[in-house]
Hints:
The structure is a homodimer of 406-residue chains. In chain A, strand 3 and strand 4 form a beta hairpin. Helices cover 34% and strands 23% of the residues of chain A. Chain A is α+β, with helices and mostly antiparallel strands and 406 residues long. The model of chain A has no long low-confidence stretch (mean pLDDT 97). Chain A is globular and about 80 Å long. In chain A, the strands form four sheets. In chain A, strands 3, 4, 5, 6, 7, 8, 16, 17 and 18 form a nine-stranded mixed sheet that branches. In chain A, strands 9, 11, 12, 14 and 15 form a five-stranded antiparallel sheet that branches. In chain A, strands 1-2 form a two-stranded antiparallel sheet. At the A-B interface, strand 10, helix 8, strand 11, strand 12 and strand 13 of A face strand 10, helix 8, strand 11, strand 12 and strand 13 of B. Bound molecules: N-(aminocarbonyl)-beta-alanine (2 copies). One N-(aminocarbonyl)-beta-alanine sits between chains B (90, 124-126, 132, 189, 352-354) and A (222-224, 270). One N-(aminocarbonyl)-beta-alanine (URP) sits between chains A (90, 124-126, 132, 189, 352-354) and B (222-224, 270). Chains A, B: Zn(2+) 1 binds at residues 79, 90, 186.
Amino acid sequence: SINSERLWSRIMDMAEIGEIPRNGSRRLAMSQDDIDGRELFLAWCKNRGYQTFYDKIGNLFVRRSGTEVSALPVVLGSHLDTQPNGGRFDGMLGVLAGLEVLETLDDHKISTRKHIDVAVWTNEEGTRFQPAMMGSGVFTGTLSLPETLATKDSNGVSVSDELIAHGYDKGLPPGNHRIGRYIELHIEQGPVLEAEEKTIGIVTGGQAIRWFNVTLQGEETHAGPVPMASRKDPVPALARIIDLVFQIAEVDMASRATIGEIDTFPSSINVVPGQIQVSVDLRSPDESVLENMQQRFLEGIQTIAKANKHLKIEANCIWHSAVVQFDKDMVDAVRGAALKRDYAAMEIVSGAGHDAFNLARIAPTTMVFIPCKDGISHNEREYASPEHVEAGANVLLDTALQFAGK
Amino acid sequence: SINSERLWSRIMDMAEIGEIPRNGSRRLAMSQDDIDGRELFLAWCKNRGYQTFYDKIGNLFVRRSGTEVSALPVVLGSHLDTQPNGGRFDGMLGVLAGLEVLETLDDHKISTRKHIDVAVWTNEEGTRFQPAMMGSGVFTGTLSLPETLATKDSNGVSVSDELIAHGYDKGLPPGNHRIGRYIELHIEQGPVLEAEEKTIGIVTGGQAIRWFNVTLQGEETHAGPVPMASRKDPVPALARIIDLVFQIAEVDMASRATIGEIDTFPSSINVVPGQIQVSVDLRSPDESVLENMQQRFLEGIQTIAKANKHLKIEANCIWHSAVVQFDKDMVDAVRGAALKRDYAAMEIVSGAGHDAFNLARIAPTTMVFIPCKDGISHNEREYASPEHVEAGANVLLDTALQFAGK
Ligand SMILES: NC(=O)NCCC(=O)O
Ligand SMILES: NC(=O)NCCC(=O)O
């Protein structure tokens, strides 16, 4: 079994990097805080003498070598970047539990046939640079390396600028580092396991995601003297777009719709906005339902555009992550591990996107979930109990050992 | 008559300070660019040997002395700060035309009985620090000096911090500098004069303004796993608030409603916002109509709050600028000056707020408007023609001379 005190104290130590009030952490992808978090992690790895390397999109890998030198590694991993107001578990758990697995094997002097690697994927959150799951997307060929390097944040800083600034630009070509299997431990980020009083979620796959940018172009003018009828004010049409998005999510209980960002320009109390930018996130566990939601959304946008000829309204899909089914044998292995240790477990479909979704396209993959308090994440008050963290890491250990072979 | 080439070239020189693309200027109140604009203006004034001084809220005054040493001055003025995407005329015109009046009198060796001062009021725009017309508000006692000094921008920097940083903290107590009369030249910022093909607007007064901050408090959570029914998402209620605000403005043709700022927090594409902040600007030339609009707005907010018990919704009035009537003799003087010079003129009520509204509460005051292209301002493409600028400055000269006395 893993050393739960060591794992917990590492999670708490990591949370101090980029700490924000109310127990939160802010380590936006490839920011100095994200780099500092990686440095802390690397120091722990080097202390144990593990070999570390990285690739051209900044994904980090740590290896505990196996006896079969040429066999493909079993990879455990997740991410160290966070949301602007992130918590202490989303991402960090999977990385630090991966390291805990390696150290536990060392503590017990257990050697494995296959290498076991821990991966830290670049920019999983997708909040600073879009899309999410960026490092694993490039690694698996879902995203193109040159286009991804050129992606800019809202201040015009590119992924490439940051990789160069932090010395992450001289890595392996992504894909050079081939992997055998992938297992990711994560908090559920939803309310199901807690409500069902389960300790372990046996993740069978993940739902589909589509992201859109909507732009409403009007004309900046003064809030006082200009008559209402002669304004090109995009705000009334914004209300129609909000109504549209939330109607679309009513198609069934499983669908989701979120508007996380609304930016008015120039953002001045006495100026009619000249432009509004809106982000839209639509999800469904059923690919055809999401397809249908997308169609209704884009048709709805056209109807709103036609009713508002004084504006220019455009919607673009900027990301699609398809429905994922995890590998049957690996899912069974997670079920077996939970059963063996008497952890209450249930099957679950992931509502959040994870790097595992990308990895599943190139190698047998699965995930392990543990509950989080009130189903809350992407929030400083995100919390998982030490008992659940320990259970998740033990299931990760057992599943890794089963595929790496003693 | 004024020297129209000199005035025009000064307007263009000022526009280079804080220049932004498409002929715009950005000199947010008390920013370094705003200070640089003041320095340029002061250099022109000192070159002519005019005495300059400032007060504790950073209002700047320039004096061309009259022969009656103890008589109260005739003050011409406006502001040098701009909107984030401001133009070249809003504010600058009144200040630089004021200086042009002083220089014209010097060029023609005309002495006046009363002093003629030019005032540069601090933070007229109200975009960085609320409310608008801040410097003149403190000067006239409408706003309290200590409260105003403590006002912070969205980055937490206070007015006082900036005044100290730029050496503007050692000035006269506001009000120590007493004034006799006030005249402000400004672009109309609306479409009326252009549509009516008039050169001069004889401004009889200004409409009432109320500003509100609305806060919608929900709970940050993940855009994927959390079911729609268990979210505390403030975005659907935002649509109801937008609809409310624009319905309220339909009360009559003269009323105005604007939502210039919408800020979602933490502003991440895959996070349900935990909070939304919305600015609301309501105006009417009829005080009782605006009173009624405010009542309907606050009642509407309560109704929306009741229908959304999972959220905390609050609206606060942060500013009220009452209806203003300018001084009859001064309005007549503007009419007379336009008539004498054969400029096509008409009476008009100001839709924008101006420092003159505050000054009107302590001294006989009036304003002169000139047309601006397409009625557009608070926009880089704001434009006034050299002919209209010249005409406005000549009316300012004649009106100032009438009250200062040769
Ligand atoms: N796990 C997680 O929060 N991923 C971010 C990608 C997404 O689901 O939006
Ligand atoms: N003139 C002008 O744009 N004033 C700003 C104050 C306001 O009317 O909102």
